[in-house]
Amino acid sequence: MEYEAERPTGYTGIQIALHWVIAALVLFQLVFGEDMGGAFRAVRNGEPLDAAQGLSADLHIWIGVAILVLAAIRLVTRLGYGAPPPPAGSTALQARLADGMHWLFYVLLFTVPVSGLVAWYVTPAAGEIHELCKPAFIVLIVGHAAAALYHQFVVRDGVLRRMLAPSR
């Protein structure tokens, strides 16, 4: 007989905190990251950064590093504690789409900071990957938020509540 571990009914407090902190940091990067392009071009052309560009670049880099570290903690936490099953009534396709979306977030949460660091410190060519990830992040965020709101206000299955309050 094969033993299947019991899946949690919700997320832990640490999983919820990591979700919202990472979400806030990613949104900050998306909104204020545009300034990084000017700083990147200036450095690449051997021009000095003014104070605002220097501060913007430093913030972007350090917040990116924070996202990378927190994403690693989040991934380890998810692998350790697990994630709740899809809500009752979900189709197999919905479950696969939700699971795929979550894992794509993890891919981006690692790819974007690493490619940004490589572009800044090693080779500008990695900046192409970094830039291509921005629209992917935006599409995933919009899809994720839309799905959460759909579950909350149309299906009313409590999925959003799982990411607002710990159930353990």
From TrEMBL:
Q: Which keywords are on file for this protein?
A: Cell membrane, Electron transport, Heme, Iron, Membrane, Metal-binding, Transmembrane, Transmembrane helix, Transport
As for subcellular location, the record says: Cell membrane
Spans traversing the lipid bilayer: 12-32, 59-77, 103-123, 135-155
Q: Which residues form the signal peptide?
A: none
- SUPFAM superfamilies per UniProt: Transmembrane di-heme cytochromes
The UniProt record lists the keyword Nucleotide-binding: no
> What are the coiled-coil residue ranges?
none
Q: What is its main location?
A: membrane
Q: Which GO terms describe its biological process?
A: respiratory electron transport chain
Q: Which InterPro entries match?
A: Cyt_b561_bac/Ni-Hgenase (IPR011577), Cytochrome_b561_oxidase (IPR052168), Di-haem_cyt_TM (IPR016174)
Query: What is its membrane topology?
Result: Multi-pass membrane protein
Cofactor(s) listed: heme b
* Pfam families referenced in this protein's UniProt entry, alphabetically: Ni_hydr_CYTB
Q: Which GO terms describe its molecular function?
A: electron transfer activity; heme binding; metal ion binding
Where in this chain does the record put each Cytochrome b561 bacterial/Ni-hydrogenase domain? 11-164
Its Gene Ontology cellular component terms are: plasma membrane
Q: Which family does it belong to?
A: Belongs to the cytochrome b561 family.
In Swiss-Prot or TrEMBL terms, this protein is called: Cytochrome b561
